[in-house]
């Protein structure tokens, strides 16, 4: 039964026939057929590099297929081929797409980004009121709250993604492609979005839904299409499927379910007591938290509630205005390079913007934080052979799939980029690891490898501060979990005593008795 509530197969609105695309020797898509019906929600699944994004970029006109056709129903029982390589033709045909990586103009407001390309600029002012009213209705229906009058460059990652979703929903589309649309939503917000998508599908919208969160795939989709190595390996109804079966199809091998290892906490490596920091929307207050060696402490919360400031302090990019802040037994008032030298490993929230230099090589990105280390530099000269050897070791140890150590990092898939950045964070004797959204946008296989590395680091004596909006990830890894809301932090409590719904409510400001000892500001927010 599909989103319309009917067991009758939906009439197709889109056909991809024999789509093939190669990049040099790499075959990204190999003769893929895919069909989407009106009112149907199809989940497109696969590991990073399986060919999902390439296939969607061909559909949207960003790439031109080497062979094959994209066909759209013409409304009178026939088909017409979509012009190749023309995003404008895709938009005109009613295809809306929310990309995994943002496609927003950062100097424009959220509202301006949403109506850009829909309203002519000369009539922008006269149409603003109508657009705001329509967007208010959309936000009310979907639960996607976003600041529309602030330049995007001043918004957090979460609000940027919500604007991307609103931008797609604002347009009248026959086909909607969603690439990881719920990465920064609470469970309650995600369910609100799902309700909106189901309602849109019931009205005849065809939805292609890409996600690595298998629980939401099972909750939302009517049908599963799985790609592996550029080929379609499964196309079946979602009914009767389970997470383990889907994961095995995606990676081509058995994937064991994840659970936290036993903690072996030792000395404190991060101590916050009544800390205030940041300003405006990024301000945090009365933060108290301790992370010990040998444990993973997870921080849950919707993006934009203070996690950015907390992460910036641990990374040495922000200093507290008041309170006590100690890292690795001494004051946390130090530069980023000094903290790295003392044993802080860092995974940035936005790996493409803050964690890497795409045009630099893998080798240069791996050693960039330790370029003055005597192992990589002597008398002011780089030791290129040592740098290359370190990269080759990281490639082998972390199973990084890449052309070679000197390849520009931007050529790697998201999962392989993250594995290199993780190798950088764990280089040397990391005593505290800041893992900020460590698996955002990664597939099941890459996520499993990143998780294994973080567990191994904690088992070896490092303390791990895990900041994530993925509750499945938090419960799979964390020994203790705290929740951030409106700049305040609950106590970190044993994850075994919590449920996802309890954490989801706390993310929305409704902290329950499970978070005993909750601060007064948090209690007020919950009231």
Task: Write structural notes for this entry.
The chain is of the alpha/beta class and 527 residues long. The chain has three domains: 12-251, Rossmann fold; 268-343 and 429-526, Rossmann fold, CATH 3.40.50; 356-415, no CATH class. Helices cover 34% and strands 24% of the residues. Strands 13, 16, 19, 20, 21, 22 and 23 form a seven-stranded mixed beta sheet that branches.
Give the tally of β-strands.
23
What is the CATH C-level name of the largest domain? Alpha Beta
Distance N to C terminus? 41 Å
Shape: globular
**Number of helical stretches of at least 4 residues:** 18
Keywords:
3 domains; Rossmann fold; alpha/beta; 527 residues; seven-stranded mixed sheet
Note the topology:
Blueprint lengths: L11 E12 L2 E12 L3 E5 L6 H9 L6 E7 L5 E3 L5 H6 L2 E4 L11 H6 L8 H19 L14 H14 L4 E5 L7 H16 L3 E5 L3 H7 L2 E6 L2 E7 L5 H9 L16 E10 L6 E9 L3 E5 L6 H9 L6 E6 L2 E2 L4 H7 L1 E4 L3 H5 L6 H6 L9 E2 L2 E2 L1 H14 L16 H12 L6 E5 L7 H16 L3 E5 L3 H7 L2 E6 L2 E2 L3 E2 L5 H8 L12 H7 L1
Parallel strand pairs: 3-8, 3-9, 6-7, 7-8, 13-20, 13-21, 16-19, 19-20
Antiparallel strand pairs: 1-2, 1-4, 4-5, 9-10, 11-12, 11-14, 14-15, 17-18, 21-22, 21-23
């Amino acid at each position: 039964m599909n989103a319309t509530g009917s067991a009758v197969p939906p009439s197709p609105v889109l056909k991809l026939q024999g789509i093939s695309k190669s990049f040099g020797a790499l075959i990204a898509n190999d003769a893929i057929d895919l069909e989407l019906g009106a009112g149907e929600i199809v989940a497109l699944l696969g590991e990073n590099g399986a060919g999902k994004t390439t296939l969607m970029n061909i559909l949207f006109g960003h790439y031109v297929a080497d062979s094959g056709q994209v066909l759209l129903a013409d409304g009178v029982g026939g088909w017409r081929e979509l012009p190749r390589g023309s995003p404008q033709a895709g938009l005109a045909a009613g295809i809306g797409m929310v990309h995994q990586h943002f496609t927003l103009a950062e100097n424009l407001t959220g509202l301006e980004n949403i109506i850009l390309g829909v309203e002519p600029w000369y009539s922008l002012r006269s149409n603003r009121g109508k657009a705001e009213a329509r967007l208010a209705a959309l936000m009310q229906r979907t639960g996607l709250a976003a600041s529309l009058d602030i330049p995007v460059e001043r918004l957090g990652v979460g609000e940027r993604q919500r604007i991307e979703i609103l931008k797609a929903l604002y347009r009248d589309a026959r086909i909607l492609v969603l690439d990881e649309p719920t990465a920064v939503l609470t469970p309650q917000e995600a369910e609100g979005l799902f309700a909106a998508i189901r309602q849109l599908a019931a009205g005849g919208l065809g939805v292609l839904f890409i996600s690595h969160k298998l629980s939401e795939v099972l909750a939302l989709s009517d049908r599963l299409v799985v790609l592996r190595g550029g080929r379609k390996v499964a196309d079946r109804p979602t009914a009767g499927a389970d997470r383990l079966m889907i994961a095995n199809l995606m990676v081509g091998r058995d994937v064991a379910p994840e659970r936290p290892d036993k903690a072996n906490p030792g000395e404190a490596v991060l101590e916050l007591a009544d800390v205030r920091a940041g300003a405006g929307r990024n301000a945090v207050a009365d933060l108290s938290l301790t992370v010990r060696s040998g444990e993973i402490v997870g921080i849950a919360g919707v993006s934009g509630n203070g996690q950015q400031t907390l992460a910036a302090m641990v990374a040495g990019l922000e200093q507290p205005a008041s309170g006590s802040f100690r890292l690795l037994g001494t004051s946390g008032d130090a530069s980023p390079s000094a903290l790295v030298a003392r044993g802080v490993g860092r995974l940035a929230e936005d790996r493409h913007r803050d964690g890497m230099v795409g045009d630099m090589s893998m080798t240069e990105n791996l050693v960039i934080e330790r370029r003055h280390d005597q192992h990589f530099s002597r008398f002011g000269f780089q030791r290129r052979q040592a740098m290359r050897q370190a990269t080759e070791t990281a490639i082998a140890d972390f199973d990084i799939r890449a052309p070679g150590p000197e390849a520009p990092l931007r050529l790697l898939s998201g999962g392989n980029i993250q594995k290199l950045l993780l190798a950088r964070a764990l280089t040397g004797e990391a005593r505290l690891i800041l893992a900020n959204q460590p698996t955002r946008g990664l597939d099941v296989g890459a996520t499993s490898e990143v998780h294994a590395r973080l567990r191994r680091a904690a088992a070896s004596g490092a303390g791990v501060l895990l900041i994530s909006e993925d509750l499945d990830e938090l419960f799979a890894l964390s020994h203790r979990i705290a929740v951030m809301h409106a700049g305040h932090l609950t106590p970190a409590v044993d994850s075994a005593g919590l449920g996802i719904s309890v954490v989801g409510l706390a993310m929305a400001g409704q902290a329950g008795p499970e978070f005993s000892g909750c601060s007064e500001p948090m209690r007020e927010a919950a009231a």
